[in-house]
Amino acid sequence: MATKQRYYIQSQQIREHSIKIEGEDVHHIKNVMRMKIHDTVFCFDEQGIVYESEIVAITDHILLAIKKQGQEHTELSKNITIAQGLVRREKVEEVIKRLVELGCKEYIPVQMNRSIVKPIKDKTMRWETIIKEASEQSHRTSMMKVQQPISWQDFFTYARNYDCCLFAHLGEETPHLKTYLSTCKQDKVLIVVGPEGGFDQSEVINLKKHGFLPVGLGNRILRTETAPLFIMSACSYELGE
Amino acid sequence: MATKQRYYIQSQQIREHSIKIEGEDVHHIKNVMRMKIHDTVFCFDEQGIVYESEIVAITDHILLAIKKQGQEHTELSKNITIAQGLVRREKVEEVIKRLVELGCKEYIPVQMNRSIVKPIKDKTMRWETIIKEASEQSHRTSMMKVQQPISWQDFFTYARNYDCCLFAHLGEETPHLKTYLSTCKQDKVLIVVGPEGGFDQSEVINLKKHGFLPVGLGNRILRTETAPLFIMSACSYELGE
Fold it and tell me: d(Cα B29, Cα B84) in Å, to the nearest integer?
């Protein structure tokens, strides 16, 4: 449907032909978008259904009457997950926001030897707000998952869920990411990026031992916060979706 | 050579087997990197020559003795230029930084109908500093050009320098960027992105009239500051460079 602002809703907010908006979104619709009775609001749910609806009541909540609904397909056909050495808060937030737009399914911050920040738990609430907003803006119909920062050991346990595991690596001998992606048949792809300063040597050995394949990202050195955006752009581009 | 910090130098700084560093870089080498006599410094020039050199004197300038030199190829084989509707300063700076890393040759801010900021002249000094730093960090050997913001009319005059002109466009009927890039034989490619809110209808008509082809960037709506990063990532990925 239209390219307007959208609001993510959960199934329990829908009752027959109406939608009840509560919480932060009420403020956004009333005070940021300054919408009035009869204005059109677009909502979407986890199933990829987009609801074109009309405002019928504005109190401490907002009541919408559903006018039209339709299925949308804005998700990539593969599950692409990006793991990254833990980096500073502002950078993580920037990366998360862009990864949502680019269609990433899951983001995993990993404690690595050269990570200069310590993992802070309970950042996920804030991250989820960023993800919700970026999903609404980019018209995604599924929320990117974001993990609490995990340890290097737990990371390898988690990686067993994936069919294809790659890691971004410098070096002239390393095959370009394109070599794998352009022929990739697997549906669940995990790609790991180092923190600032990159993986240390023991980590590279460990990655290879666990079956991760090294891939190059081109002839230039990308910052750790640029690498995930390059990778997700490449995946989305390769799939043409 | 190594993946260390590098310093961009101009040919007049080289005298036989030595390099003279002046200005801001002296502070960076002395106080940020805390380097001493005999430490190794990597420099590069506009011709793509990388100089491995040793510090031989530190005064108000720094004198380096060249130990080794070699040609490097970190530039994309095509000239990819990104033009974008004028956006806010922080966003322009963020975009410029990432475009340098991703191998973009030139960035052109263009005044468009929905640009919410007015063009400010003389930002180029600041932009050039950002470009120099990002080039040093990403190991580029040529400086991305950045234009003063130009008008919509001047933009079309300038676009005549390009063999292939594309513009990012929403809509289900629009062929994906990949359709063109994967078969593109042209060397000079110009890709235009709208400001926040996108191109208006008259601009779309104008672009088509001037021979610009619409391309889609995938099924999700990208923010105006994400679109250039997606496009440059796609170009770099497609070239495998």
Answer: 35
Could you give the 3-state DSSP secondary structure of residue B238? helix
Q: Which token pair is B106?
A: 């030139």
Which regions of B86-234 does DSSP assign to beta strands (E)?
106-110, 145-146, 164-168, 188-193, 213-215
- Per DSSP, helices labelled H in A103-212 are 124-138, 152-159, 177-181, 201-209
DSSP code of residue B90: H
Best of B237, B238, B239, B241 to disrupt the A interface by mutation (most A CBs within 10 Å)?
A: B237
What interface predicted TM-score (ipTM) does this complex get? 0.89
Least confident of A184-188, A206-210, B47-51: B47-51
* Residue at A232: amino acid letter: M
Altogether, the residues listed in chain B come to a count of 241
Instruction: Look up residue B225 and give its amino acid.
Output: E
How high is the mean pLDDT of chain B? 92
How far apart CA B215 and CA B198 sit, in angstroms, is 14
Minimal Cα distance from B98: which residue of A?
A: A226
What token pair was written down for B66? 């060249």
Taking only the tens place, the pLDDT of each residue in B103-147 is 999 999 999 999 988 777 667 788 999 999 999 999 998 899 998
Per-residue pLDDT, A1:
37
Q: Which DSSP symbol is given to B150? A: B
Q: Do A73 and B176 touch (CB under 8 A)?
A: no
Instruction: Report pLDDT for A171.
Output: 78
